[in-house]
Amino acid sequence: MKIYKSTEAPSIRRSVEIGTLEQRKAVLDIIEIVKTSGDDALFAFTKKFDGVELEKLKVTETEIQAAYEEVDDELISIMREARENIRVYHEKQLKNSWMMTQSNGTMLGQKVTPLDSVGVYVPGGTAAYPSSVFMTVVPAVVAGVERIVMVSPPQKDGTLDPVVLVAAKESGVKEIYKVGGAQAVAALAYGTESIPPVDKIVGPGNIYVALAKREVFGVVDIDMIAGPSEIVVLADDTAKPHEVAADLLSQAEHDPRSSSVLVTTSIQLAEAVQQEVEEQLKTLPREEIARESIDEFGAIYVTENLEEAIEVVNELAPEHLEIMVKQAQECLAKIKHAGAIFVGRYSSEPVGDYFAGTNHVLPTNGTARFSSPLNIDDYQKKSSVVIYSEEAFKQNANKIATFARSEGLEAHARAIESRLKEEQ
């Protein structure tokens, strides 16, 4: 990892990934073929991209029960505890419908309604992410979504990973399909013979999944365009170099384009972490991925003081932020832009990834400047409610009609005045 003085550092904000022209064209072609050919397209693309020739798309109850036999009971117990932590945290986010009554009898309010259906994308194929199942499905269940559909690319033997299937069952998913990539997103958005369309698509995926979500937005809602994982560690000389290095590598091992950054007031810590990262890389099973990430997108920024360090963090607006300084609570109050914030030595980022209960589907590429982690609001919609009283109408009708005519909308004004004439 290179060490920079923050004032001499190269540009530190990453732009949202939009893919190459070839990737975008490929995604558009896939979407159009799925729209016109339905299930046949899904079978064909699964054979082409995943190397799997499927007989059916939907996972059966028999497959789910077989998955339980393959997964260790201790792991199932741990997963259930994690699920409950996630449920309890997200229940705190629930909002209720409300009404307020004014003195003239008018009632104004907001009606909160869960979405009818949600599609959950879970990455798969060569890796298994049961944690992503919990993070996307449990909040939907808490919000009251009736139909939750999960899609995930199959393994080479045509099955889904047993741990993913167990997580889906434990979360409450009743529809699971073995399909991934842009074709899965298209199926969720437009529907096929086997997969009825949904109202919203959530969950992380590769660049093709991200581009497909971008393209179908408007036909359905989406949660966000997720990029490669990011972590920023804000630390002073009280932090332990081996722990900081381990946390940086926890994100570097995700993807060669993941970003791991240390922002510190201590040159001694910077140099010690630089050395620790190199030593720990040598023993990582995913060393090749992590090393490319560290070499290309890793950095250490040394600042003159803590205030400058906080400015750097807010400029980065990272997906994950760890605060390892003496004045941690004081720093927390000054952080404006971060997807998830982990405060103190024992709040290592993987605590949030798996177990604490907070959501790990987070804004990336600096979008934490204006967006939030996946949450209950993503699974509910709000309708405004107007119950206008006769007294309020008579009092304000002429004002409303005048306002409408100021915009050149005569029919609006007449709609109001028609009621006045009837009263007279």
The residue ranges in which pLDDT falls below 50 over 5 or more consecutive positions are: none
Number of strands: 14
Name the CATH architecture of the largest domain: 3-Layer(aba) Sandwich
Shape: globular
Strand order of the largest sheet: 1-11-10-9-12-13
Which band does the percent of strand residues land in? 15-25%
Binding site for NAD(+): 121, 183, 206
Enzyme class: oxidoreductase
Cofactor: Zn(2+)
InterPro entries: Ald_DH/histidinol_DH, Histidinol_DH_CS, Histidinol_DH_monofunct, Hstdl_DH
What does this structure look like?
The chain is of the alpha/beta class and 424 residues long. The chain folds into three domains: 140 residues, Nitrogenase molybdenum iron protein domain (Rossmann fold, 3-Layer(aba) Sandwich), CATH 3.40.50.1980; 202 residues, Nitrogenase molybdenum iron protein domain (Rossmann fold); 35 residues, no CATH class. The protein is built from 16 helices and 14 strands. The strands form three sheets. Strands 1-11-10-9-12-13 form a six-stranded parallel sheet, sandwiched between helices. Strands 6-5-4-7-8 form a five-stranded parallel sheet, with helices on both faces. Strands 2-3-14 form a three-stranded antiparallel sheet, with no helix packed on it. Helix 15 packs antiparallel against helix 16. It is globular, with a radius of gyration of 25 Å.
